[in-house]
Amino acid sequence: MMKSFPWSLLYCASLLLSDVLGTYHLNAGDPHLIAAQSYAQTRNNGRPPLRTLNPAKTDSQCRSRPLDLVFIIDSSRSVRPGEFEKVKIFLADMVDTLVVGSEATRVAVVNYASTVKIEFLLKDHFNKPDMKKAISRIEPLAAGTMTGLAIKTAVNEAFTEQSGARPRSRNISKVAIIVTDGRPQDQVEEVSATARASGIEIYAVGVDRADMRSLQLMASIPLEDHVFYVETYGVIEKLTSKFRETLCGLDPCAIGHDCEHICVNSNASYYCKCRNGYILNADKKTCSLKQVKVEVVEDPCKCEARLAFQKQTQAAIQQLTAKHILSIGSDGRHFIINSLCSTFH
């Protein structure tokens, strides 16, 4: 029994070695190598891989928070017509997951290749049907991949207040999602840093032959939360649920609150309200019964009846006084009743 143990251990080690060699025997540029690099990056950051593409996964406490959202999409020659249609479906699916509107999320699309074209601005469409129609009309530009120029254009032209971005005082998050399948033909590091410094959060989505180093230079940190990779455009739609989890905000009232009566969501925070008949106390959390000032008003009908009775009584007294009604006592003396008014008062 003991003699067979070393041989078993040696056999297991040989299987493990062959498996390792088979796993890492990859050619440069192989999509699996890019995925392995992405996983290695996640391990180096000390966190487990978070990008499990499960479109069925949702968060019941999750709701879309207001955003100024700009998609920057690569339509260079390397993106085939059928693949570009997949990108458009991804954009339409993303719009469906968001709460869009002038006071909710606003969306713009920047299309690029060797040139850059703003397909529509943040101020152009405030409802889903119009946005999706505009997305369906987008055509690929072909030619090169000027990703840096596209980012610069988005910062200078799409994320401005003139184009529909909300003022900084509104504290509306500004988000850019870049979708590309190649290596940029211009510099992206400096322009991306400028965009991030201006308050824009950048997500980088790489497809197929995308250069992982370029994605990392563009994206915000932590990289494991802002860099995505899919092997083909055929599965890019599956990223929709992951972006929904990332871009939505947790419902503060659902997480927990200390309101005595009613909790009302307000962007990333909440405030308290009271039920009818109560007022909010100075602590802005508890409620007190509203003090009602009661005014007693007599029934006008009762007043009129009382006045009528008083008039009839006064008239009767006047008649008795006028006739000098006499009352004779036992001693024979006469007494004249001159007035009975005081009796009725």
Explain what the structure shows.
Among the domains are: 67-248, Rossmann fold, CATH 3.40.50; 252-289, Ribbon (Laminin). It has helices at 4-24, 31-44, 81-97, 128-136, 147-158, 189-197, 212-218, 223-226, 239-247, 252-255, 300-323, 341-344, and strands spanning 62-64, 67-74, 106-112, 116-120, 173-180, 200-207, 227-230, 248-250, 262-266, 269-273, 278-280, 287-289, 326-328, 334-336. By secondary structure, the chain is α/β, with parallel strands linked by helices. The longest helix has 24 residues, at 300-323. The strands form five sheets. A six-stranded mixed sheet has the order 4-3-2-5-6-7, sandwiched between helices. Strand 13 and strand 14 (334-336) form a beta hairpin. Residues 1-5, 12-62, 325-330 and 332-345 have low confidence and may be disordered. The chain is elongated. Its main location: secreted. This is Matrilin 3a. One of its GO terms (molecular function) is calcium ion binding.
Structural class by sheet pairing and helices:
alpha/beta
The CATH class assignment of one domain is: Alpha Beta
Q: Hey, roughly how much beta strand do the residues contain? A: 15-25%
The radius of gyration is 41 Å
Mean pLDDT: 76
- State the share of residues found in helices, binned by percent: 25-40%
Q: What ranges have pLDDT less than 50 throughout 5 or more consecutive residues? A: 1-5, 12-62, 325-330, 332-345
Helix tally equals: 12
The shape is elongated
| Termini gap | 126 Å
The ordered string of helix (H) and strand (E) elements is HHEEHEEHHEHEHHEHEHEEEEHEEH
Find the CATH topology of one domain: Rossmann fold
By CATH, the superfamily of one domain comes out as von Willebrand factor, type A domain
**CATH architecture title of one domain:** 3-Layer(aba) Sandwich
The total count of strands amounts to 14
As laid out across the biggest beta sheet, the strand order is: 4-3-2-5-6-7
Q: What profile does the largest beta sheet have?
A: 6 strands, mixed
Keywords: Disulfide bond, EGF-like domain, Repeat, Secreted, Signal
Protein name: Matrilin 3a
Pfam families: cEGF (PF12662), Matrilin_ccoil (PF10393), VWA (PF00092)
Subcellular location: Secreted
